[in-house]
């Protein structure tokens, strides 16, 4: 049979009866004639695109051919459609096939050399958007001897002139002809996507899996860093350097996921899932249920765990006069080294997809936000997404927060939730709606209670105010409170099972009061972490609580109290609102009640309790310093004995341990040791 449009799709294949592709095109044409109406044919001729489902594709093409060479099979469908249009009186038109249904995605680790030529379905976050390029796929060459014009197709971006003239001159010298009807160019762009975390643990080397994709024609220029996309395409190879090829996905169709907060691989909520969600929401001890699931390896610190769980759920995003108020709850943990801050961050990171863990020691400004690279040939810019952009609508855990070189880049990203870039004439804003969970060491290696919060950290107070919850983690447990913890840790390392009753006793030793006991209250049934993870994703994407009047009154009353006592600002009130909304969202309620407001107030009050203690400690320290100055002024030399220091401490009615207080003054440069039991006053 003769196929008029054969050369458009198979320029290097011979049109003979012995070619298997010829018969496949004929069979597909017969099937399409039975499916398409005249209206469908006219629409295809106008748009030059034919959209079909994966089920239709498998009905048109034998499965063995689709598995072995999907690219050729898609070209066969396009060729058959072009023949139908040609028979209907249209010109020879090249048709693009688009697969519009996305079946179960493949794991990046499963996409390897054995999948070459097959259709692959993957999803991920766009972390790099490459330069926009123009590629010539077909060009005319003129023989320099006889003037014969030859049409040559370019494959894999490789320039291939004709080997010899088809005329009798046998010339091998050709001149490429530019801007001729036979020349065909198309836009192309490379993007790199990062696999979404699926909750199955880290990859083999701890690095996120990446995959390169090639966009053509109308897909070029439609992607931005941070977009979550679903991709269907044919796995192929591209020449990277001499004798070295890399795997790439030649995109057939790509879809941007709009509801980023809800999307995750294989998240399909059935009726049974909703019933299970309802049982979880109505059960008792729901906070402890989540804490035991995601933070079972961390002992104690229930307040911090509760704050982190509320951060995973988040509040409700609002729009006030075209200004969006963030719903994300940012958490900062300040603590002495070796108290498990990194473990808390790692456990938080694995709770949700599209989350990342970054150490401030190795993080650059571009690594956190976005970088632009200029292409001198095309004049285009390539954008590389940083951690905050990649984790848009996810969780970004920043460890060693004090080691970050430039904290100023986080001001806009945390509050306005975008990163503005102005470089080389390119001005753009990229969304960074990430929940930031950070951990930092104090400025001098240990937390000094006699100094203010700003003096204990290495960054600006403006950045500190952007955190909704700030927890201070101190190694101040009494000796009797620590007795059971080492045994518990050693048994855990040896793989021994510790009964739940013993765990409860250990946790009870760490801290015990009414609020903590409420957090530790056991729930009913136990659920797997996968179910609870799906529960969080469902709540984040579908539940948007609003405050009741009684809840507003409770928050207002507490806000006025702390404003009078500490000079709290509007960000403190917004933080309280978000915490109350997150508490209601945890139980899938659309109304945040007064109980939710009181819970957020109690949690916020305990997170801020360090400020009240520091104020008292600083007042005591200042009062004692005045006594030391007066003594130095009276005696001249400034030498004082330890015994006299004991007497002065007794006169100040301080409840502190005298030796510890003297050691603290020595560390702060107030006293310096001069011989046995003698000190010199330096203030």
Automatic annotation (TrEMBL):
It is found in: Nucleus. This is Minichromosome maintenance 8. The keyword Nucleus applies. One of its GO terms (molecular function) is single-stranded DNA helicase activity. Residues 286-489 form the MCM C-terminal AAA(+) ATPase domain. The lineage of its organism: Eukaryota, Fungi, Fungi incertae sedis, Microsporidia, Ordosporidae. It comes from the Eukaryota. One of its GO terms (biological process) is DNA recombination. It comes from Ordospora colligata OC4. Pfam families: MCM (PF00493), MCM_lid (PF17855), MCM_OB (PF17207), WHD_MCM8 (PF25051). InterPro entries: AAA+_ATPase, MCM, MCM8/REC_WHD, MCM_dom, MCM_lid, MCM_OB, NA-bd_OB-fold, P-loop_NTPase. The keyword Metal-binding does not apply. Keywords: ATP-binding, DNA-binding, Nucleotide-binding, Nucleus. Belongs to the MCM family. GO terms for cellular component: DNA replication preinitiation complex; MCM complex; nuclear pre-replicative complex; nuclear replication fork.
């Amino acid at each position: 049979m003769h196929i008029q449009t054969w050369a458009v799709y198979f320029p290097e294949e011979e049109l003979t009866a012995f070619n298997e592709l010829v018969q496949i095109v004929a069979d597909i044409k017969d099937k399409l004639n039975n499916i398409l109406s005249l209206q469908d044919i006219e629409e295809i001729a106008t748009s030059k695109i034919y959209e079909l489902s994966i089920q239709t594709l498998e009905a048109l093409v034998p499965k063995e051919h689709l598995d072995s060479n999907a690219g050729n099979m898609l070209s066969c469908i396009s060729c058959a459609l072009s023949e139908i249009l040609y028979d209907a009186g249209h010109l020879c038109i090249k048709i693009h096939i688009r697969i519009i249904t996305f079946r179960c995605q493949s794991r990046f680790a499963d996409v390897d050399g054995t999948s070459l030529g097959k259709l692959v379905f993957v999803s991920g976050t766009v972390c790099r958007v490459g330069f926009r390029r123009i590629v010539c796929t077909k060009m005319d060459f003129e023989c320099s001897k006889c003037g014969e014009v030859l049409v040559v197709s370019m494959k894999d971006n490789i320039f291939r002139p004709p080997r010899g003239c088809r005329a009798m001159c046998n010339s091998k010298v050709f001149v490429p002809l530019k801007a001729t009807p036979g020349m065909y160019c198309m836009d192309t762009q490379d993007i790199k996507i990062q696999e979404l975390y699926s909750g199955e643990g880290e990859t083999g080397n701890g690095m996120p899996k990446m995959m390169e994709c090639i966009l053509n024609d109308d897909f070029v220029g439609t992607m931005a860093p941070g977009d979550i996309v679903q991709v269907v395409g044919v796995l192929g190879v591209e020449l990277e350097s001499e004798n070295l090829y890399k795997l790439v996905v030649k995109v057939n169709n790509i879809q941007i996921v709009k509801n980023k907060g809800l999307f995750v691989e294989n998240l399909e909520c059935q009726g049974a899932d909703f019933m299970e969600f309802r049982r979880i929401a109505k059960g008792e001890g729901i906070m402890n249920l989540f804490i035991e699931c995601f933070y079972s390896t961390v002992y104690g610190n229930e307040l911090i765990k509760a704050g982190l769980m509320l951060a995973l759920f988040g509040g409700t995003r609002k729009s006030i006069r075209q200004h969006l108020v963030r719903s994300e709850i940012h958490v900062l943990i300040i603590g002495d080294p070796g108290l498990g801050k990194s473990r808390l961050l790692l456990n938080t990171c694995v709770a949700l997809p599209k989350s990342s863990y970054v150490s401030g020691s190795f993080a650059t400004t571009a690594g956190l936000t976005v970088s632009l690279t200029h292409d001198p040939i095309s004049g285009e810019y390539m954008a590389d997404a940083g951690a905050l952009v990649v984790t848009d609508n996810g969780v970004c855990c920043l460890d060693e927060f004090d080691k970050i070189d430039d904290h100023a880049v986080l001001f806009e990203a945390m509050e306005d939730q975008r990163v503005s870039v102005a470089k080389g004439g390119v001005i753009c804003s990229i969304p960074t709606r990430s929940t930031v969970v950070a951990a930092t060491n104090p400025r001098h290696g240990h937390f000094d209670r006699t100094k203010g919060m700003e003096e204990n950290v290495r960054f600006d107070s403006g950045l500190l105010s952007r955190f909704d919850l700030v927890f201070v983690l101190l190694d101040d447990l009494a000796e009797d409170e620590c007795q059971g913890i080492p045994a518990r840790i050693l048994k855990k390392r040896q793989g021994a099972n510790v009964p739940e009753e013993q765990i409860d006793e250990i946790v009870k030793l760490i801290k015990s009061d009414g609020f903590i006991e409420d957090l530790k209250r056991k729930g009913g049934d136990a659920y797997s972490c996968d179910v609870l993870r799906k529960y969080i994703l469902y709540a984040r994407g579908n539940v948007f609580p609003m405050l009741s009047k009684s809840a507003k009154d409770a928050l207002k009353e507490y806000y006025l109290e702390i404003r009078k006592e500490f000079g709290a600002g509007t960000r403190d009130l917004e933080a309280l609102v978000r915490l109350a909304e997150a508490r209601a969202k945890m139980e899938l309620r659309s109304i945040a009640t007064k109980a939710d407001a009181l819970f957020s107030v109690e949690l916020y009050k305990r997170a801020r309790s360090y400020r009240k203690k520091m104020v008292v400690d600083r007042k005591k320290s200042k009062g004692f310093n005045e006594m030391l100055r007066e003594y130095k002024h009276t005696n001249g030399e400034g030498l004082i004995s330890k015994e006299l220091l004991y007497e002065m401490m007794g006169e100040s009615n301080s409840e502190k341990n005298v030796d510890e207080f003297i050691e603290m003054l020595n560390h702060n440069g107030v006293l310096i040791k001069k011989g046995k039991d003698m000190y010199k006053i330096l203030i």
